[in-house]
Amino acid sequence: MKINQIECSLIEYPLPAPLRPAWAPGRVFNTTNCTLLRVHTDEGVSGVGAGPEVGMLGINTFADLVAPYILGKDPFMVEQISPYLRVAARDGSYPWAFEMALWDIIGKVTNQPVYRLWGGFQNRMPAYASLAEVPSFEEQVERIHLLHSSGMRAFKLRLRRPSIKEDIALVEHVRSVFGDQIDLMVDANQAHVMPSPKPIGAWTYFEALTVARAMQDLNVLWVEEPLPRYNYHQLAQLAEAVDIPIAGGELNIGLHEYKMLVDMNCYDIIQADAAFSEGIFQLRKVAALAEMSFKKFIPHTWSNGIGLAANLQLAASLPNCPWFEFPVDPPGWTVAARDFMLKKPFQVDEDGTISLSEAPGLGLDLDELAIQRHTKQHWISNRVL
C-alpha cells in the first residue's frame, strides 16, 4: 500500500453566537475554522485528520513541506514518516493531522478502532465540560446548570479576570452553589494567549501560589497553566509547594520538551494535544514517560470534532488518563459548531461519560455537504502513483 494523493481544505463555519475565549483577551470570534486533511492510498483506503486553521500556511505546509517527501510511502510506516512532520512543523505549521490520517487508514485496513490497536484500556471515559469564556458569576452558574442538566458532572472554569481575587471569588461562588454535586478544575491560561487587543501579561509566581492554595481549599482537582510555558523552574517550584496537581503542556513542541517537563517535575498532569504537537502515536511516548514517572496524561483537545476524535482514541488507550476534555460553552461554542464536519457529533452520556465507537480507524463519518458548503480553499496533490 502506498500514499498516492493528499488533499487539504480550509474550512470556516459560523458560530451560533459570538465567542470571547479567555485565551484571547478582548477578541471576539464569530466563526470557527479548521484545516481538514485527507490522505489517499493506491488501494482505495483513505484517512482523515484535522488541525487548527492558520490560513494558507496550513495548505502550504502540506503542499510544500510534506507531500513532496511522503507521497509514495507506506502509510503503515508511521515512525518513518514522523520525522518529516517534525521538520514541517519547524518550518511550517501544525502538520500533525497527517499522523491522525495515517492511523485512520491503519485502523480501517485492520478493521479496528485505533485505541484497540494500541492496547485499549477503556471504551468509556469520564468527561469534563471545558468552558471557554469568563462571564459574570451569575452567567457562569447558569451555563453550568444547563450543562449539568444534560449529563455533565465536571467543569473546567477559566481564570483570567482582572484580578486573582475575582478569580478566586468566582470559584468560591460556583462551589457554594453546587457543593459537591460537581467536580471542578480551573484553567488560568497564563502559559500562552493568542494575539489580542487587551494587555496579555501573566501571573507572578506568588499570584500563582496564592491561587493554587485557594483552589486546593476549594477541592478543585487541578490548576492548569498557572505560569508562562517556559518558566520551568518556577513551575517545578509551584508543583512542589502545593498539594493540588498542576497541569499543562498543550502547546509545548517536541518530545524533548515533554521529557523536560516530566524530568523537572513541572507538571503533575501532562496535557499534550495531538492536533498541536507530535501526533497521536508520538504522544503515546509522552504518556508512557508520564506513566513511568507516576504522572497523569490527560490530553488537551480544544480544536474541532476530528481533533477531539483523535485525542479520544489516544486517551482511551492509556492507563494513566482518568478524564477526557469535552469543549463546550454555549451559546457561542456548541457541540454542533465544534463537530459541524461530522454526521454524528460527539456527545456526553447522562452519566457524564463519553463512549468510544467500535468503528474502525478514528470512527468518523464525515458530513460531506457541510464540508463542501463551508470550504474556503482547497488543494489536492497532482501526483497519483
Topology:
Elements: E1 3-19, E2 29-41, E3 46-52, H1 56-70, H2 78-91, H3 97-110, H4 114-117, E4 124-130, H5 137-149, E5 154-158, H6 164-178, E6 183-187, H7 205-217, E7 223-224, H8 232-241, E8 246-248, H9 255-263, E9 269-270, H10 280-292, E10 296-297, H11 305-316, E11 324-327, H12 335-338, E12 353-355, H13 368-374, E13 375-380
Parallel strand pairs: 4-5, 4-11, 5-6, 6-7, 7-8, 8-9, 9-10
Antiparallel strand pairs: 1-2, 1-13, 2-3, 4-12
Helix pairs in contact: 1-2, 2-3, 6-7, 9-10, 10-11
Would you mind describing this structure in some detail?
Helices cover 37% and strands 20% of the residues. With 385 residues, the chain is an alpha/beta fold. It has 2 domains: 124 residues, Enolase-like, domain 1; 240 residues, TIM Barrel (Alpha-Beta Barrel), CATH 3.20.20.120. Strand 9, helix 10 and strand 10 form a beta-alpha-beta unit. The mean pLDDT is 96.
**What order do the SSEs take from the amino end to the carboxyl end, as H and E?**
EEEHHHHEHEHEHEHEHEHEHEHEHE
Q: How much strand content do the residues show?
A: 15-25%
Looking at the structure, the CATH topology of the largest domain is TIM Barrel
CATH C-level label of the largest domain? Alpha Beta
The number of distinct structural domains comes to: 2
Q: Which structural class fits the helix and strand makeup?
A: alpha/beta
Q: For the record, give the distance between the C-alpha atoms at the N and C termini, rounded to a whole number.
A: 11 Å
Q: For the residues shown, what is the average pLDDT?
A: 96
